[in-house]
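Weekly modeling sync, notes
Attendees: S.R. (lead), two postdocs, one rotation student

Agenda item 3: backlog of single-chain predictions. S.R. asked that every request posted to the team notebook include the full sequence so nobody has to chase files. The rotation student volunteered to paste the first one in as an example of the format we agreed on. Action items at the bottom.

Example entry:
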Amino acid sequence: MIRIITIEREYGSGAAAIAKKLSDQLGWTLWDRAITCEIARQLKCDVKSVEQREERPDPTFYRLVKIFMRGSYEESLQGGGRLELLDAEHLAQIFENIVTGIADRGDCIIIGRGSPWFLRNRDDTLRVFIYAPPEEKLRRLKAVGKSEREAEDLIQSVDRERAAFVKKYYGANWPERSLYHLMINSEPGDDAVIKMILTEMDLLNSKAGLPAGSSASQHLSR
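Predicted structure, as returned to the notebook:
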């Protein structure tokens, strides 16, 4: 039975808003910024510092400071370690620990952070990729207050950084099509995307031997 949905996305495709609506409809926990907050809590640093490093590769393959590290990053913190030790490679490792822990709780939607890759072998996970044409992403970003120039710059840069992060730290292409059950264009609208996700969820549950309509169908009528 599907108990986890991972959502990877192109920047500006509206995935965050879609995931929020879907989590409300299913009554499941949404893990997006909450993952950032959990990382900050575990590492005893501020959320903004984590956000600046998420899904972005470091400018050098290994930061020189690692030469002086002994033991785990958490141990270095306890010994007075400084925030600059929080690099993308450490985040890549922490993502896996946190994402797999969240998945074990079930009934959740996880956005990004390598979750489709980490959970690729779980039968209880529906993996979705949401994308959109450039003009649709531009429209969505302008609707939430971005200027046209800022939106265009973000559309170009954010996904490029995500692809570089995934390639460098997980050795995979982004997006890796074979990971996903669904790759959905969000241009038809949020409700249409949610309907497709719930339909796929129901199909996977039926394939697993659950009665037809035991999962998603009941939510489509709400």
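Discussion: group reviewed the output briefly. Residues 132 and 188 are 9 Å apart (CA to CA).
Action items: rotation student to repeat for the remaining queue; S.R. to check formatting next week.
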